[in-house]
Amino acid sequence: MLKKFLSLFVLMLISVVPAHAEIKVDIIAGAMEPISVAVQKFETVGSVSSRDAKMIRNVVEADLKSTGLFRIVSHDAMPEFVEMGKLPDFSLWSAVKAQVLVQGKISAESDGKYNLEFYVWDVNGKEQIEAQSLVASKKSARRLAHIMADSIYERLTGEIGYFDTQIVFIAETGPVHNRTKRMAIMDQDGYGMRYLSDKKTFVMSPHFSPNMQTIVFLSFRDDDPMVWTLDLDTGEQRRLGQFGGMNFAPRFSPDGTKVALSLVKNGITHIYEYDMETKALRQLTFGNSLNTSPSYSPDGKKLAFNSDRSGNQQIYVLDLESGKVERLTYGAGRYATPAWSPDGQFIAFTKMADDTFYIGIMDPRGRNEKILAGGWYMEAPSWAPGSRRLVYYETERALDSIERISHIRSVDITGQHVYDIELPDDINGVEPTWSPKLP
Fold first, then answer.
1. Residue 308: in which H helix or E strand, if any?
2. What DSSP string runs through 54-106?
3. Crossing angle of helices 141-157/50-66, nearest 10°?
4. 392-399 long-range contacts, Cβ below 8 Å, gap at least 24?
5. pLDDT digits (tens, 9 = 90+) for 291-348
6. In degrees, to the nearest 5, what angle opens at C-alpha 405 toward C-alphas 203 and 402?
7. Helices (H) and strands (E) in the chain — how many of each?
8. Nearest-angstrom CA–CA distance, 102 and 225
9. Distance in angstroms (rounded) separating the CA atoms of residues 322 and 352
10. What distance in Å separates the CA atoms of residue 21 and residue 1, rounded to the nearest whole number?
11. Which pTM does this prediction carry?
């Protein structure tokens, strides 16, 4: 779908690596001084819209600034304009404390596409450290900006970028006691929101397939809570299967061939695994406890979930080969909604203790717990590609029974860089899930 609509191609990638030590951002560190980045005004060639050129520059700057790792040099403080192909006067850029200089040029192609070229300079090292050329249709100019920002981020941090991604979530409208819940999708910065479901059907818990082709979600169509899939290419919706009971909390396996879900039978909730190819359903948890919120490890060999089998809600990990279950959390309070990071180094969770909700992370053994955010009600952490940032939702405590506002927020693993993803004024955002990088 994305290839069809965006028509985006990478023509050339040149990475120039200096021999000496170069500028590098430590994104794990807590308090640190942001790297100062100057993004020049873009050169334009041919019938390039000045509005598009300004937009691409602004989006690149906004993406980098949102990480908390970079400080954007004011446009008024730029000491010179350096044409592409010419060497910057590094002493001038050092004088305004710029550590990184970014140049860009946009050319209009004869077939109606844009060609975006950009260079990245290490000012202190006096060397070019990145050069790329990208081509996309004019209507995909904003995505060009996100890909450019990803490239700069990856070059300076050594980590996977996450700007060229999307977030699927539930958009709530209306009074708190009679809200409409629709599935919606948007870019990771909140741009281009559009609905994926209508007002008639109550929907919850959307999650992407690894290839971004399908979304799996819970639908209350005809007042029957069942798991459905949505094909993002065709818009077709299909019921996942006939399971003989209420099913919910679906998650795709890392290879996209299976879906883990919770299924209620005889009043007991267990986790099952549904094979998308064979249509076979396999029970994974047993006993008389409530088991839900499954999340696969990146290698697909383990499954984190929450269960009340110990007397209150805690997080466990199931080895899918041996069937062995290990309890991870022992801290004060209740734990829920585990989410394995893409790199396998962390499990995010929701914690409830002392009348407060928290979003936190721990290692896959349940150790080194770190709280990233806390509030009246927050839930549903989901990882960005690269495993350095999460998205979740927070609901403000209502002063009356009429209004209750929910925000979609993003936080990094230091817990120091939190921001709201802006939504239209009349929309409350809940249950966000971050996509993989777009194809």
1. none
2. HHHHHHHHHHHHHTSSEEEPPGGG----PPTTS---HHHHHHTT-SEEEEEEE
3. 40
4. 392/359, 392/432, 393/169, 393/429, 393/430, 393/431, 393/432, 395/428, 395/430, 398/176
5. 999 999 999 999 999 999 999 999 999 999 999 999 999 988 999 999 999 999 999 9
6. 95
7. 4, 31
8. 51
9. 31
10. 42
11. 0.92
In the 8-state DSSP scheme, what is residue 51?
H
Q: Give the 3-state secondary structure of residue 299.
A: coil
Could you tell me the two tokens for 76?
């008024």
Contact between residue 97 and residue 186 where contact means Cβ atoms under 8 Å apart: no
> In 40-189, at which residue ranges do the beta strands (DSSP E only) sit?
43-45, 70-72, 100-108, 113-122, 127-137, 166-173, 180-187
Token pair recorded at residue 296: 């696969």
* Eight-class DSSP state of 112: S
Supply the Cα-derived Rg of the chain in whole angstroms: 23
Element (H, E) at 161: none
The length of the chain, given as a count of residues: 439
Strands 194-195 and 418-420: unpaired
Q: How many percent of the chain have pLDDT more than 70?
A: 92
150: left (phi over 0), alpha (psi -120 to 50) or beta: alpha
- Which residues make beta-bridge pairs with 106? 44, 116
C-alpha to C-alpha distance for 409 and 171, rounded to whole angstroms = 14
What is the per-residue pLDDT across 33-48, written as a single tens digit (0 to 9) for each?
A: 899 999 999 999 999 9
> How many other β-carbons are positioned within 10 Å of the β-carbon of residue 211?
12
Residue 360 in 3-state DSSP?
A: strand
Q: Which residue bears the tokens 């023509």?
A: 11
Give strand pairing partners of 121. 101, 128
Q: HEC states along 194-237?
A: EECCCCCCCEEEEEECCCCCEEEEEECHHHCCEEEEEECCCCCE
